[in-house]
Amino acid sequence: MIKAIIVDDEPYCCEVLSTLLERHVPEVTVEAVCHSAAEAITAITTHPVQLVFLDIEMPHMNGFQLLERLPGVDFDLIFTTSYDQYALKAIKFSALDYLLKPIDRTELQAAVRKALQRLQRPLPQQLQILLQKLHQPSQQVNQIALPTMEGLQLVPLDAIISCASSSNYTIISLKDKLKITVSRTLKEVEEMLEDFMFMRVHHSFLVNLNEIRKYIKGEGGNLIMSDGSSVDVSRSKKDQLLKKLQPRKY
């Protein structure tokens, strides 16, 4: 059994989540329900739990500020939130889990299943990336957390050369000829990297613009990357790409 705490300032949302857990996720027992971040800090520090469902938008102190107030995060974490593009981007960037409200039963079961497989607190680097992404300009974040089949891998942004779609996974090519398979679709990886020098040049490829060494003309064309690999460019992306490359006089 997993002992859990629900943190949400809306009583109705707490009731809904508690009911969903009771009916559809019996392996989770709710030890406490908190309606404010301050109440949650007390509960988390007094109840040894393995999982916290944490609402992001709360008055006085939001979910992120709550995490900053804790002496440590010794539990698995699932954020619950209404759609907030900026917050969700930071959560995805740090490879932490989240559920969108209204919470879907199937998505809840999948999130808890992942927690059961992991049952570990977030790495300090994940929380550091999350808070850095929230509080500082995008260009100051220098690494990304990527979930792989073996676990979590922290990768410097400037080590990524290109990303290729592989069904529901993405194969990321790194410098030194290294490749890692990430448990995210290319679209999800694109959303995580769109604030940086990356561009989707084909439905199957995302590239680091700083790692392009040559553009070869053609219907769409091809890119030669810094590792010597060739990446196709779709016709629909050609003009946009050439505009981005123009200052470099390709």
Walk me through what this model shows.
It is a single chain. This protein is α/β, with parallel strands linked by helices and 250 residues long. It folds into two domains: 2-134, 3-Layer(aba) Sandwich (Rossmann fold); 145-248, OB fold (Dihydrolipoamide Acetyltransferase, E2P) (Beta Barrel). It is built from eight helices and 15 strands. It has helices spanning 11-24, 37-46, 63-69, 85-93, 105-118, 124-135, 186-193, 235-245, and strands spanning 2-7, 28-34, 51-55, 76-81, 97-100, 143-148, 151-156, 160-166, 169-174, 179-182, 198-202, 205-208, 212-216, 222-225, 230-232. The strands form four sheets. The chain has a five-stranded parallel sheet with strand order 2-1-3-4-5, with helices on both faces. A five-stranded antiparallel sheet has the order 10-9-8-12-11. α2 (37-46) crosses α3 and α4 packs antiparallel against α6 (124-135). It is elongated. The chain starts with a strand and ends in a 5-residue tail after the last helix. The mean pLDDT is 89. Keywords: DNA-binding, Phosphoprotein. Pfam families: LytTR (PF04397), Response_reg (PF00072).
